[in-house]
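Final report, closing paragraph on structural work. Over the funding period we assembled a curated collection of sequence-structure pairs, and we close with a single example.
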Amino acid sequence: MLQTIAIILLVLWVLGLITSTTLGGFIHVLLVIAIVLFLFRVLGSAGR
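Its predicted structure, as stored:
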């Protein structure tokens, strides 16, 4: 589930970069959240 959310956030971030929205700061916050969720997913599966 976290991986799906991270992928969705990454797609939204890329779309934001392509369309050059004025919400640039918000787009980068989405990227940071997606990376954090992805890292939790990777580290969580490595610990098992």
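The chain has a mean pLDDT of 76. The chain has two helices and no strands. We thank the funder for supporting this effort.
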